[in-house]
Amino acid sequence: MGGNVNLYHYKTWVVSSVLDQYELFKKEKSKLEMGKLYVVPGGEPSNRNAYFERFVFFTKDIEKILEEMDEELREIILKRYFEGDSSTYMLDKGLKSKREARSLITKAVNTFFHRLERVRRDIIKKAV
Length: 128
Prior knowledge:
The structure is a single chain. This protein has helices spanning 7-27, 59-68, 71-78, 86-93, 98-127; strands spanning 36-39, 55-58. The protein is mainly α. The protein starts with 6 loop residues before the first helix and ends with a helix.
């Protein structure tokens, strides 16, 4: 990650990183420690902004987040429509506008990310 990154792109990076590790864990359960997923942004760690701190999640937390999401938003996350052009999602779902597709993709990323952030804050509160 380096240089200037807007918040939405940072969120997509975090969501992609979490999904990468989640999928790896699902394939190789025995090799990863207790279902922990590590998300480490590039560069120096910063205590000034929670969004740029290192994250540790458990697979059960990710599964719970996915279960609680609307089916449409969960599909966007799991099929990683946010990583490509919104017209792909528009065509796959038969939507009439890219704007509607972009809006749903953004909503899915924001929902998933903010639920991750809530879990991260809860973990920190329990540790203190």
